[in-house]
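Q: What would this chain look like folded?
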Amino acid sequence: MLDFSTLTVEAAGGYVGLERRQGRAVLRLPYHLSHLEREPVRALAMLYKVLGVFRTTDKAAGRLAPVDGIEHNGASVRGTRDEGVSFHDTLGLEALFQAFDPLGLLSLVERRGRTSRVDYGKLHRHLHRAVYLDDGAPFVEYASGPRRELRLAAHDLVGLYCFVAGDFYTGFLDLAPGQAWGDFSGEALAQAADFRHRFLHADSGLFGGDAFVATDTRERLREILFRIERQTPFKSQVFLTLFDGLRRYLEQGWLADRDDGMVWGIGDFWSVWESACLAHALARHAPGDIFTCDYQHLPAALLTREREQAWQASREAVFARNEYRRRPDLVVRRDGGYRIADFKYYAELAARRPKPDGAASARQVADFDNIELYGLLLRDHLHRTGQPGAARVALEFWLPAAARHERAFTRAPAWSPPLRVVGQPVAALLDDYAKLFRVQPARR
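A: My prediction, written as structure tokens:
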């Protein structure tokens, strides 16, 4: 894992995550999280949870294919809205801590089997299985003992993994063992405790705050990992997969001998921001108040089949026009009116509507055109169907901010429907979003 004492933290847009830069590890955070720049462990833990939640969305399933290895600077990974984005995981965090298979791990643990040969010097250990003859003599048909399989090294690999994973879940993510391991927690804690007792110190850990202890623990774990690999003659696919993940997690060779580039994170943060905004809106409105939304951005824990069908029907009725199915980020129906919100991950937005031939980016020109069209289509639908509320339609851009604020567009000719910018506090939205994080082990 990382040496947090040498980790540089900076706020930035675009790529968010860990980057290798001139032999150093740099953690790039979303906008307006400067309060975390002095707390790299907390910053990375929050970001790990946020990306873990986002990867449960339908949008992520269709767009995020994990990239194995550093993505060199200059590569085309900062996808546009239509091209998608990519996820990078050189550290192996996804494979180790989100896609682990408890049953596969247990297959590496040494098990006790039956043997017909009884060591009578240890007969007292098997008397509970004995059948007593008429003269009181015990007869033992079989005894339990170690299977004659070369699995001691593999067993130690499971212990190493359980220690590393337990340290990651509790020391880094601040999760209770039951939250992380589920039904596997009892076995995992026992394996981790046994491994610590045999190979490490009582205070060993990678996230305790003491740089010396973290470095010593990491070096000990690396030494034990490679010793296990050398001493295991027969390696199953489960063993090889687990070994490779632990090796990538514990080694920092990528900081010294590779080109600069992306190590762990997401190629463009706009889709994560949209998902966090939508989760924030859903938490503050009753489900019936959401007229429609781009529900593909919702985490799986917040989306039901009934909600999806209702929102899809409303979207088709209002915004599917002229051979194009438009998807507004959020439409809220409340107090007799409608509010259309478009989520934008910009450091700042133009103070007035940009002209197509001006210096503004083509993306912002299209943003203003789209939100205007959303409002006109909704008003047209309400007029055609005779529903109330056409005069009470409002438009909003949601942008990342340090604290909540609002700014109306007041230039003439006036916006109709009226338009305003709402700055949403990034720290609060992402903290709430991260609380949806759950470990999701692989199932067979």
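The chain has three domains: 4-106+150-268, 112-146, 270-433.
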